[in-house]
Amino acid sequence: MRPEPRSRDETLALRRRLVGSSCKLFFSNDPVKIVKAKGQYMYDENGRQYLDCINNVAHVGHCHPAIVKAAHEQSQLLNTNSRYLHDNLVDYAERLSKTLPGKLCTFYFLNSGSEANDLALRLARQYTKHEDVIVLDHAYHGHLTSLIDISPYKFRNLEGQKEWVHVAPVPDTYRGIYREDHEDSVTAYANEVKNIIEQAQKRGRKIAAFFAESLPSVGGQIIPPAGYFQKAAEHVRKAGGIFIADEIQVGFGRVGKHFWAFQLQGEDFVPDIVTMGKPIGNGHPIACVATTTEIAEAFAATGVEYFNTFGGNPVSCAIGLAVLDVIEKEHLQAHATEVGNFLTELLKEQKMKHPIIGDVRGSGLFIGVDLIKDQAERTPATAEAEYLVTRLKEEYILLSTDGPGRNVLKFKPPMCFNKEDARFVVGTIDKLLTAMEKEDLNQQQTSTGAT
Question: Measured between alpha carbons, how far is 200 from 312 in angstroms, rounded to an integer?
């Protein structure tokens, strides 16, 4: 056992030597060594406190005592696979079922969001007997080979688009092909899906599923217009496919108004499959697929058993139950609405003050701030966004960017993030943007004087 902890530089040197270079670090030029976390705060080896604005995995807060207690107590009793009867598994499935529409009543438990999405793809293909998948542009659904194939965010930098994959435009009403001034962006974006289906059918292709994040995250913290999923699903189901809602980033009350982000579309929309991960275990590796009895029975009809060694084990289910308990007891869904609305209003005030802020969008504690170079073209302010998150780190705030232009500041903090935190981060953003604007003005004056 090492008598003394390593220095940051020693840890970094070992990581560079032993860990694959494709496993990236935040702030790679000056990475942070985190040794402890609690609630919405993380601490480095020197005890410095950072406000965590991006860790949606620690959903109810880092190292929440109720989650730690549940894991510890069940670990002392039993941890084994799901081939034995155990109450935790069925109790957890029952609790999840109460949060979902009635037809989503059959559950599979796994270890990661990637596993969940891979299983969802298998379920869709077995049920429909079709192969093809429609996805949204810039989407990311996981790191398995099957999911890289349906993730434009990844496959465009690898082997390209497979014949069975069809990419629909992301329903982004700020910088998408149909914007806020379009008379009916919902129908226009849904018709893009319809056109894709028609073109695929002309080539003899058959659609198994429309696979979509309920709120596209990597795509730039996008809020699809209400009604889009219903109309897209209508076209997909008419073609014999099903609708898969990927809730891995945004489920479990994060959007505030609803427990699931797909519910923002309206009460009349129900997916055929819902996938869950990341926040479901507050940092413990758990994932889940919820689907209909009909789809589950079609999957079972193959006669091939589905078995996941660690999926649904007693410790994981105890943790999952504890997460649901904390969300309920601490009223975190309502908290997400209250604090999210407060943060959004503060950010919108900054939009009026700083021209670089083109758009502020979100729901609950899922918020995107779109930074632009100009109001007319809405050109992504990529370099400025990178500079800003680097400077925020120096102010002990952890934030990052997303979107195809890497220009959207993404807020997905632990759900215990509060109004004081919101004031702190927005006040710091205001200070940094003001300094950036002053520097730009000085450079312009210097340039003018030189000519």
Answer: 38
